[in-house]
Hints:
Elements: H1 3-20, H2 32-64, H3 67-113, H4 117-124, H5 133-146, H6 148-158, H7 162-175, H8 181-205, H9 210-230, H10 232-239, H11 243-268
Helix pairs in contact: 1-11, 2-3, 3-4, 3-8, 3-9, 3-11, 4-5, 5-6, 6-7, 7-8, 9-10, 9-11
Amino acid sequence: MNLRGWVVLAAVVMVVGAVMWRPTGPTVQVPTEVGWVRTQGRLLRLVEVYGVPAAVVAVALWWLRSPALAAAVGMVAWGCVAMWRAAREIRRSVSMAASMAVLTTVLAGQARTAHTVEEAVGQAGTLVSGPVAEAAAELGRTVGSRGIAAAAGTFMREVDAPAAEWLGMILVKASTGGGRWADAVRILRAETVQEAEILRELRKQVAAKMPTAMFMLAAGAATVGVSGWLYPEVGAWIAGPGDMIVLAASVIAGLNAKRIAGAATAFLRT
């Protein structure tokens, strides 16, 4: 590849780096066990976002002997990884929201019949399924021995969801004598049920279509590769003067896939 090709490749790398870079905020002190879980999550995210495309680029570079084509293959892999992670995050959020909706629904029902907050929480904790089930069961078991505030604090740390934080704050407020906690739980129940419905629709309209989009992106790259393998003149053009065109098309496809995936995951944080 000539000097022009290296310049274009360097520009593409800078663009991709600018898209992927995110500024880091100030350090927040968290409990050791929670910090380790978050560190594991960050490491897994780094492996998925950077490690998988980098491995694909390394294999493609060894096989194709062309930095431009290897970068093109890497961009396709990067776009596929972005969409796969977005679909997985949507599914996880749907499960979490549905489980929180069950917990708040059960707790709202128990709040009408139980004599104390501890009794309501203890009974509700045994009737929840899904990702929140274990944390809810622990909340129900420990609310009497540790107190509402301590048990609710543990629950908020274990369940990474805004609704869990809201529920924990309601319970903490109830432990200090704050009145009308049952009304607050019923309002939260309505919010969590609505959130679960919205996320189910997002999964239906977006996450369910991600595998098809990933297949189309990979199929497009495979079509170019198979064409170059079947037709020597096409392969010579791709490996020669056409490598920058292939790279540009891959960059556009990869960035578009990342934009779609980013929009879906950004919706989850609103």
